[in-house]
Every structure is written in C-alpha cells, then in structure tokens.
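Intended use. Records like the one below are meant for learning the mapping from a protein sequence to its folded structure. Do not use them to infer anything beyond what is encoded.
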Amino acid sequence: MHVRLLRLLRDEGPLSRAELAARLDVPRPRLLAELDRLVAAGQVAEAGPAQSRGGRRSTLVELNPEIRYAGVDLGATSIDVEITDGRLEPVAAYSEPADIRSGPKATLHRVNELLAKAKAEGCFSRLDGIGIGVPGPVSFRDGLPVSPPIMPGWDRYPVRELLTREHGCPAVVDNDVNIMAVGERHGGVAHSVDNFLFVKIGTGIGCGIYLNGAVYRGSDGCAGDIGHIQVDPAGPVCTCGNHGCLEAVFSGGALAREATAAARSGASPALAERLAANGAVTALDVAAGAAEGDVACIQLIRDGGRRVGAVLASLVSFVNPSLIVIGGGLAQLGHVMLAEIRSVVYKRSLPLATGNLPLVLSELGSRAGVAGAALLASEIAFEQAS
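Structure written out for the chain above:
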C-alpha cells in the first residue's frame, strides 16, 4: 500500500487522511498506522490544516518537503541534470555539451561533479533517488548498458551500482528515449495516455513504447530501437555496421552530412553562406535555412520526415497507438518535418488505426528526459522505502 500512497501524494499534492483512506480504499486504522510509519521514516510530513468545511478542520499530509531526486539524461553530445522535489517540481538544472564516447568513467565523474555542485549550492542535503538515461540499449533489471552502438566502453558497465554507492540512495538506469516517454506521460502532451509512441530524433533515432500504461522494454531492453530498421539497402554505413538504417539516412549526423553536400554544391545558398561563415553546418542550420524559405533545406527536412513516416506507418499498423509524440534535438525542425511524417503515416497506415491518431511535437522539449528520469527515481525510492 505504501507505494500507492506515496504516488498519490507525489501526483496530487497534500491530502487529508480521510481523502487518502477513500482514494486508496483502505480502512482508516490501517492507513493511520502506515502514515505513522512513513512519518517516522522521513517520507511523509504534516502539511497544516485543510480548508474548513464546517466543524473541525482535518490535517493534511504531504511528501516530506526535503525529499530530492536527481534526473540525469545522457545524450550522445550532452549531459542534462535536474534536481526535483518530491512532487517532481524542478529545484535546479544543469546542462552542458559532452561526448558519450569519452567513456563511462569520465562521463559519470562529470555527472557526480554536477550533483556535488547542486549540493554545494544548497539544493539538497541528501538525494533520495537517482534516475539516469543513456543513449543505447539497457538491461533495466541489471541497471547497465548492453552492447550500445555509439557508447564505446559502456558495455555492461555497472552504472546503477556506482551511482548507488557514490550517493547512498537507490538508482535506476534506462534507455534515453524511454525516460523521455515517461516524462512526457507524467507531465507533457501524453499525460495519462496509456498507449503511445515517443519518437526521439536527434544524434540517433529511438522510440519509447508505452503499452497499457507501462513502458514496454522487450526481453533484452532494446525494444523501440527503430533507428536500426533498414530503409535503404544501398544507403550509407550505420554506426551499428549495417547499411541504410533509418539513423544513417536521417539523424543529426546524417542531416549535417547532407547539408554540407548541399552547401558545397551550391544547391543551398543559405547553407553555403553558413558554411563559409562557420566552417561547418549542422542540423540546426538546416532548420534556420528552412525557416528562411531555402528550398534545399526544406527538401532535406521533407526527405527525412518521409523516411521516419515510412517506419512509423508500419509501427502504427502493428501497435495501434492512440498518440505519437516527436521529441529530441531534431524536433526543432518543427512543422515542416511533422507535416511530412503525418502525411506518410496517414497515407500508409490502416484508416482504422489513423482515424483518431494525433501526431504532435513534445510539450516538454529538452526537459522530457530529466523529468522522466526523476519520476523513475521516485518510483525506485518508493519501492525501497521502509
């Protein structure tokens, strides 16, 4: 019962004992005994009197205001850290460029330094749980990455064990797109949707799968790895060693490669100008060029959107979700890409599956990952609460 009680206080805020007993459908004496135990354990605190409804005012209870969780989102090229309170409201946030290929020791050392900085700045005295997402397949049960294509040195590295030992609190490790899906369901556009797909388009491409109100991870933790579905047998070599994967033809790196070719050939004046000024062009330069009306930039985005749409159309027919959310760094390509993805999905999938299928951009944006990691941290902390 204690996990359900703590979740209720996390998601709803302060509640009276009577409300808790009714919502949890448990006898009041049992609830009071459980609350006394959680107060003694430092999980729950009294929150003052409830609004008067006539007669004696009841006392509200809430999660201990001192509770703190850390949500960490490791991307291929970035580290994002957020400290939240027990209700998952942000207390502090840190974000900086990083290279996941520098290996687990250097990357996790930097994560620990950022957490130490947050502690020194008074954000927390101790952490109650840590959630971390990494850009590769994860054994959720064992808390470690497994054969990640773009993370040399991380295979079976004991991430959960090290964070638990370093910070003296429970930790949980998941794939980066899964934590984004969790964040979007808790506080974004997918709020309380039980069956949806969260598609991350960034340095890589992945898909978080929510089925019947829970993340579907597959038997080995690599469900949703749609970036390695082949879309062009004659396409470029992918980081996984195969040819023409979705990720190899449309992702941050692939788009930068195509953009550089368009700039050098003169097909895109906007990109040629940026290449001359900066010495390189990125996916974000393509987005800026498209916003200015550059035809080649718009075409690059449409081509990529069409590739993603073709893969998603198959998934829609297979999974029948009620929502698709697009997030990740390349979500900044915006509505040109979204319109192309929508067009292909609606054209190629069964009418029954797409008749009521919103396909939208993430509401949380870059916060989706850290928000989901913090929620997973709260879940593991609740389960281990004595």
